[in-house]
Specification:
It is built from seven helices and four strands; from the N terminus they run ααααβααβββα.
């Protein structure tokens, strides 16, 4: 939800700054960040997915995002945030059997939630009641704001910042237009 919110906020700020939303078409390989959303839905809602398939889909998803970042690397600052956020989330997920650890404090904030319920409803997450590898990169930051309430990771924050900056930058940047007329020779 944080990433979606950053996209909406980026579009709003881009328009307020008199940016052009159609400039987003100039982003290279944009489908590489849209296609993984569908793969992540399979992982999220299919709890009995074989481990090897889950690992392959997760790796494919994050590889697509990294390829998108590399393809649009001329947007340096947003690319750094997007790349670091993607790598941060992938590393912690891969280190924990391709599931994102959520802090055990979530059980205190949501008293009706159980660790088993999280796993049954979202197969790609687990409550780290007995610890987790690289927990500092897991979903440990609580956001109490109703619209985006929940736990997020450092990687999620980096991704949200990167996406916001990318959208605002591209919407306002005239030089991204790849189809430029040839300079007149006089």
């Amino acid at each position: 939800m944080l990433l979606f919110s950053s996209i909406i906020l980026g579009l709003i700020v881009g328009l307020i700054r008199k940016g052009n939303i159609f400039r987003l078409n100039n982003l290279r390989l944009l489908w590489l960040v849209i296609m993984p959303l569908f793969a992540s839905l399979v992982i999220k809602y299919y709890p009995v997915l074989p481990y090897i398939l889950k690992a392959a889909l997760t790796t494919l998803t994050y590889s697509c995002v990294i390829a998108f970042v590399i393809a649009n690397r001329e947007n340096v600052v947003p690319s750094v945030f997007l790349g670091l956020g993607t790598l941060s989330n992938y590393v912690v997920i891969a280190a924990n059997s391709f599931r994102m650890p959520i802090t055990a404090k979530a059980l205190l904030i949501y008293p009706t939630m159980t660790a088993e319920a999280v796993l049954s409803q979202r197969a790609n997450y687990f409550v780290a009641t007995d610890g987790a590898k690289l927990m500092s990169l897991g979903d440990i930051i609580y956001i109490p704001i109703k619209i985006i309430e929940g736990f997020i990771s450092v990687g999620d924050i980096l991704l949200a910042i990167g996406m916001f900056l990318l959208i605002v930058r591209v919407m306002g940047k005239n030089t991204l237009d790849r189809k430029k007329p040839a300079d007149d020779v006089k």
